[in-house]
Amino acid sequence: MATLRRAAELFTHLVWAPAEHERPGLARLRAVCDAWARYLVEERETFPGGCLFATASIEFDARAGAVREEVARLLRVWRVRLAHDVRVAIGEGELAAGTDVEQVVFELNGIFLALNQQLQLFRDERAVERARRACERLLS
Fold this sequence. Notes:
- This protein is mainly α.
- Helices cover 71% and strands 0% of the residues.
- Helix 1 (2-16) packs across helix 2, helix 2 packs parallel to helix 5 and helix 5 runs antiparallel to helix 6.
- The longest helix has 26 residues, at 66-91.
């Protein structure tokens, strides 16, 4: 549990903090995507197994208990942050009025789960550019 909480602090510092000063909406979502990709590429020494939350969610998703609940809670907090900026982007007219907020959040998470796998399992450095293109297509 302490490891998860410390990882959440680091993730917040490395991914959210660099983006939080950006204007809410698409500007902040794009900054989050850039920081998220950097985190997966540059923090391999801190997280040699890749994103700790991706690993923990896979390891504990079928188990009951406090660790599973904490992983789910932390991922829900992240999804709420992303959803907020998607809603702001819709409200500002940066995304179409009919945009499905939960779908965008789902796809953003999917992009970065795929990026983590491509980097960790396949050592594919080209995956970062693929993830960036996917984010840009999603957020256009």
